[in-house]
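Hey everyone, long-time lurker, first post.

I ran two proteins through the pipeline my lab uses and got sequence/structure pairs for each. Pasting them in order. The first:
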Amino acid sequence: MFEQLFSSESACRRHRDAPLADERQRYLQHCAEQGATHGTLRMKAKELLWLARHLGSDASVGVDMEDLQGIVRRRQSACRGTTTVRRLIDIARPWLKFLGWWRAPVVEFQFQHQLDQYAAWMRDERGLSRQTVERWHAHAKAFLQWCEKTNQRLTTLRPSDIDCYFVDEGAQRRWSRVSISHTATALRAFLRYAAMLGMCDTRLAVTVRRPTVYRHESLPRGPEWPDVRRILTKTDTDEPRDIRNRAILMLLAIYGMRSGEVASLRLDQIDWRARALQLFRLKRRQAQVYPLLPSVAEALARYIDTVRPPVPYPEVFIRLQAPWRPIKSSSLYDVANREFVALGIQTARHGPHAFRHACAAQLLANGLTFKEIGDHLGHRSTSATATYAKVDIISLREVGDFDLGELQCC
């Protein structure tokens, strides 16, 4: 690896003969496979060389931030530039994590064990989706942190204490009525779990009341369908970012996919020969097969063939910059919001879910029933399990039959 980065034999020898040469080469090779440029690899190699010479012989046992700060102080005496010092830390930690040598600081949390058990129970016993587990875990953690801060014990918790939590945290975080409702739902679920294990009063969960949130009270939440067409037209360029984002936005708008469903979409879910798209809807926990519309197939193929990095990940959508990793669902907000801001489109929501609302509104305008729209969007239904995979193909093709050259209305 050193020979690929340095043309001078003396430079290569200097890197080879220094301590931890094998560990440094393996990490540099890993960075190269993740898309790091030649210049970035040279910079990393130089910083790791300096770091390897100053690490102790017991570095494999573990290096924490205090140890790293000690090495940084030596660097400061040799170079007073803050950028250089900061760069050393930014390069050192990923390398040490790659080797398994980094000792992350442990934050003592009184309820950590109970929180970990709760997450495992939601995942393994309840079979909840990853997104739901993460969301409810975050709500439970925030509540338990408040309990720790206010010296509350679960065994002696009273309804008035929970009221104080909503008052204190709601005022600090400026919760809306919808936010309070979501928090109450998640907290009630946690308290039921805690009561099941005898950690709190069994009657406590029923005292958590949600505020009334009226159905459709905030509609319309999505953009008009002509605005969706404007966005898709704007992203029809030869720029790599637009090529990737256009494919993402079409999945959001035409199939009404959730951000988590787009981020987790795998290459093997696209059947090019059968022109079909298999989606694993988060709420249904069951696959649904949709027709792969020509416009969507063209956008996906163009991205995969010309933009997608050559990485071993099964996910379709990958970060554009190194390190190459699957895109996170939270990153899709920036993908969507960027287009709304650029075109000056005013709508209640600027994130990926806005396209889901636009899709539902367009299907309704095309004459589909609420049941058919629910099937298309992957909503749960206790009375229509036989129609989980049914989609109105004709109406779906009308929604997806984009002719962006003339921008005809559906």
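...and the second, right after it:
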Amino acid sequence: MAIVRTRALLAALFLALAWPAGGAAAVGDPEVAALQVALHARGVYQGTVDGVLGPATSEAVRALQRTTGLPADGVLGPETRRALGPFGRPRLGSRTLSVGARGWDVASLQFLLAWHGFPSGAFDGRFGSHLEAAVRRYQRWAALLPDAVAGPATIASLRSPLPVSPLALTWPLGLPVGDPFGPRGYAFHPGLDIPAPTGEPVVAARAGRVVFAGRSSGGWGNLVVVAHGHGVRTWYAHLSQVDVAAGSRVGRGEVVGLVGSTGISTGPHLHFEVRLRGAAVDPLPALR
């Protein structure tokens, strides 16, 4: 009975704070992500900040309770929330957020921004310069006042459905995905990583115009970016060789380069991104 009661209480808590209907299963809950960040700050959670209330997160709540002398029931009640310290409060939407803020709501904001295509580095519950820049970029993307302040309008916009590619794409490399789009540790991976041998041909996912081809900054190594219209661009990174030139047009399935491990990379693979007007979106729903 105690286990059933604990699960029911946890479910009631997080349903009250839940992600908008239709998105929870796919992306996780920003409130659960904030809990994971707070538990990590207390040294009791070492898992991925994915917004999923799984066994590791529940056990971390109990570990915190044991270390602070509270009943280890796994329930995030008022005393447990206080035990989380400054990262256990306040909830998203209870205040306006800007540089210098820290807390539960900042972690929720970081998580929401990442899933909407504007990751800001580590999920750490601190509003620093990287988060400031990400908020400003998102506001421009969403046609909001780009003041880098997360007030009611920005937060409401971030609770809308996630952006998706309006265009269908084909696979740039016919091999299994090694690392998907989404949370990775305490950060966010904005594309797909497809491991492959060095020299494997990489093809354009759709016809378009090459807008960048060459050595890039930011750890991408040799990079090709193709614009396809409707605000959609595809990125092909870490290439060992670039086989197209900026300004040229490519057809669907045309080779744009070869798999490599240039830039910041731990081994040969293709890092493939899809961006919609600058927002990184999950490529999988568009791939055919």
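Reply from user beta_strand_b:
Welcome! Quick read of the second one: DSSP finds eight helices and twelve strands in the chain. The chain has two domains: 2-158, 182-286.
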